[in-house]
Structure formats: structure tokens, C-alpha cells
Amino acid sequence: MPPLTIGIPSALAVLSFGIVTWQFIAAQRFPLHRRSPNPGFAPGITLLKPLKGCDADHSERCLTSWLDQDYAGPLQFLFVVADANDPVVPLVQRLIAAHPHRDARLLIFPQQVGANAKVSKLAQAEGQIVHELVLVSDADVLAPSDLLSQIVLPLQDDGVSLVHSFYRLANPSNTAMEWEATATNADFWSQVLQSRTLAPMDFALGAAMLLRRSALEGIGGFRALVDYLADDFQLGHRIVAAGGRIELTPVVVECLDGPNGWKTIWTHQVRWNRTIRVCRPGPYIASILANGTLWNALAAAVVWWHPALSSRERGPWLGLFMGLIIARSLMAQLLAQHIAAVPGRPSRGDSFVFGMAAAKDLLGVAVWIAAIFGNTVHWQGIDYSVDREGRLTPLAKPKG
To answer: Are the beta carbons of 116 and 122 closer than 8 angstroms?
Structure first.
């Protein structure tokens, strides 16, 4: 029997690998990318697109992917900005002109009615919605052409109030972005499915959310969310609290971003992790137990330096822990390949994930600590404080 000083880190190492394996199994059981053949359910949908700024490489492609949806039902497109001089305005105007068959409008609301600038746009555009179903999507989301025809299907069940989709970071162009993509494309979506094995979903993922207008009105509309950081979490959580149900579509959307360095990625990851901590403080703190590299590396270090073990005794232990680190990295690579395996095109699985998984885990410890011991976030050029309920208070005056 190993000494207690070896047994405890060894137990944590095995526990962390067990949690990672659980995530992997949950992900494999979900019918990711599966399409329903010949969907015939096509009610009217209003698409809300809150916008700020314009990426020269990706904005046109992302917005066009929505205007070009292959959907049989009526669609309304509302593109919403806060500033008539926003660089995205000429692009939106040009795209609307290029799609005269679409019911598409550009709305400009200079007033900000809450701390969350994105939700402020949604709240003011809400009165322009004409259809019973409402889709909210971030500006950087690239949608497959059949997204609407697939994401709408669960709403044939009157008990379903909101349907949302997974997303992947599709274009990491440097090491910092590859690190963040590993966290999203390998770990995040499998963790969501793991949580679903414990309890029904009571939160939403904001990349693409389709909900009933009646459910939105039942929680007070977007105005009830204008001061919250995690507006997607609040939206889903309140809808479930009001008696609705949330479902996941198997269709995956992609998020495209321009080149970002370590400072930007670090700021984004800290904001994202503080958001999760505010929404789920207990599970967030416990999430460190799922760090498959940290605990195995720590256990290996303890074994390596333990004075009671001979070199011969250390060998099997070190082999076990290093093997578990490699297995964790392999599972991460397989998960990234799975979410990238879009039907109809060759797999674009992120080949860097296997080598990046351990670095993601170890640097993730610093992000985890920073998220716990801070209550400020930097978002779209503004610093905010975040209270225990997740409400934002600008530390500088918003500029729209």
C-alpha cells in the first residue's frame, strides 16, 4: 500500500481521469451533427442580430450565412446597432439590398437601457418582432444552411420553450487562439453534456438560441436581462423556472474571430470563467477536480520526489500517471475532431489539440484562480464589476 502522501494525490489523479472519461462518454452518446430528414415543420421566425463593429475577414460571411438559410417558413431579420456610424452599418445595408426577397431591417437604438449593451439592443428591438419564434445569435456566428430547419424541430413539442446549439471556435490562427479553441472544442461541449446527465438543462448557450416569444414575454422580455453579464444563462434559467424546457439541437454552429493575442485571450477566458463562477459557484469551484493533467502531473511529481520509494518502485506509478495524461490528451483530440466533423465536407479536426490539451489544463489553473478571486470583467472595451447575482455595473461610462 502506498504511503498516504502518495495515496491522496494518486486518488485525485484517478478521480480527475474518471471525470474526463465521463465527459467523453456523455459526448459520444449525443447524436452530434445528426439531421432530421425532410423536415416539414417551418413556422415563422424572427432573427435578432445585435451588432457592434465589423471584422473585415468574417462579418460578411457570418451575416450572409443567416440571410441564405434554406428554410421553408417566413423569416424576419432585425439587425440592431447602437450607433449609426458603426462600421458594420454599410455592410448590413449592402447585404439587405442584395437580398430583396428577405424581410430584413436595420434598427438603430442609441439609448442604452441597461449595463449589458448587447441585451439593451435586443430589449429595444423586441417590439419589432412579428413572429412567435425568436432566434438570437451572436455577430460572429457562422450558421450551416440548414440550421433553422433543424433547430426548430424540437419546438413541435409544446413543452419545449427554447432550443440552442453547440458552437466551435473554427479559425484559431495562433498559439493563444489554439489554447482557447482547445478549451471550447474539446472540453466545454462535453462538460455541458456531462451536466445534462445529472439534471435537465436550465441554462442556454448564446451562440444560437431559438425560443418562443410567449416564453420570452413570460419572464419579462429582454428588459429583465439588461443588467446581467450572463444573459444567455439568465434567459434559459428563467424560462425553466417558469415551467419551460430546454433542448439541444445536434447541429453545430461555428464562431469566427480575427487574430487575437495572449492578452485578449486571457481577458476573454477570465471573463468567461467568472461568468460561469457567478452562475454556478459550487460546480465551478469543484471543476478543478476535472483537470486531468494537473492532478496526474502532481501525483507524478510526488512519486518522483518521495524519499520512501526506490527507483524501481517509482516506475509503475510514473507510467500510470503519464499514461493517464496521454489518454486525456487523446480524448481531447477525439472530441475536437468529433465536433468539427461537419457532414458533407472533410473533417477539419483541430490537429493541435493533442499537444495543447496539457498546456490548456495547466494554464487553466491560473484562469480558475483568477476567476475565483476577482469580481471585475473587461467586455467590449469597458470594465465592469459583477455582483453575486451576476449583475453588471460599469466602472466607466459606456459608449454605446
So the answer is: no
